[in-house]
Amino acid sequence: MRRVPVAVLRPLAFVALAAVLVPLAAGCGGGGGRVNTAPASTPTTPAEPPPPVAQPPVAPAPQTVPTDDRLLSTGWKYRFDMISPPNSNFGVTNRRVYLYFRPDTSSVGFQLENRLGVPIQIYWDECTFLDIYGRSWKAVHRGANYQTKDLPQEVTYVQPGAKYADFLIPVDLLNTPDAASGRGTKLLLPTDLGAQSLVGKIFGPTLVLGVESGEREVFEVRFKVASVYQDR
């Protein structure tokens, strides 16, 4: 009987084939049995930003707003002429300095540019201020108050090529109850109807600088009230 071996061999072949296919099916299926063999990505650290570039200090602008918050409530404003030294641009230029002045109802602001190769000194205690009544006073600058108005003022050094901005007022503006209580100074020029009586009046600071080899250079700056007007 030769067909007996054939009947036995077919089941054995099926078992062998199943043994090969079952693991393959398990490996191709989804779910938790699948293993990801891709390499894990390494998180990259963002590059640090470059350090900020240091900027040179900028001199503050002159203070031209009344320190006691009194604004031009009545709208009276001024037009000025610079009569000493005469200049329509309110500037003074020589080989040592460039000066620009800005008169206002609270102070005379200025900016100084050092054109020398050595520092320039501002001798505040030698500066004076002529008020609209023809009286000469000690001049004080930014930082002065009722408590310090009679104390010596430290010399300011302006380095070569640098600019410096400040303002000057007569010390008399600090001799008020408001200044004593810290509420601010009185105005240099009135902003009410009294402004009309000041047309033609002259005022201004005298600025004293130390330049080359300890030499003093004096700038007597004078302004004239050309006109007043009401800003409507």
Gist of the model:
Helices cover 12% and strands 31% of the residues.
Radius of gyration from the alpha-carbon trace, in angstroms: 42 Å
| Uncertain residue ranges | 1-38, 51-73
The main sheet comes to: 12 strands, antiparallel
Q: What's the quaternary structure here?
A: single chain
Q: Count the helices. How many?
A: 2
- Give the overall shape, derived from the CA principal axes: globular
> Helix content range of the residues, please?
10-25%
Helix/strand order, N-terminal first: HEEEEEEEEEHEEE
CATH fold node name of the domain at 76-230: Immunoglobulin-like
Helix-strand blueprint:
Layout: H1 4-28, E1 76-84, E2 91-93, E3 97-103, E4 108-114, E5 120-122, E6 128-130, E7 136-141, E8 156-158, E9 163-170, H2 177-180, E10 202-210, E11 216-220, E12 222-230
Antiparallel strand pairs: 1-12, 2-3, 3-4, 4-9, 5-8, 5-10, 6-7, 6-10, 7-9, 10-11, 10-12
How would you sum up this structure, described in words?
The protein has 232 residues and is of the alpha+beta class. The protein has a domain of 155 residues: Immunoglobulin-like (Sandwich). 12% of the residues lie in helices and 31% in strands. It has two helices and twelve strands; from the N terminus they run H-E-E-E-E-E-E-E-E-E-H-E-E-E. Strands 1, 2, 3, 4, 5, 6, 7, 8, 9, 10, 11 and 12 form a twelve-stranded antiparallel β-sheet that branches. Strand 6 and strand 7 form a beta hairpin. The protein is globular and about 50 Å long. It starts with a helix and ends with a strand. The N terminus is likely disordered.
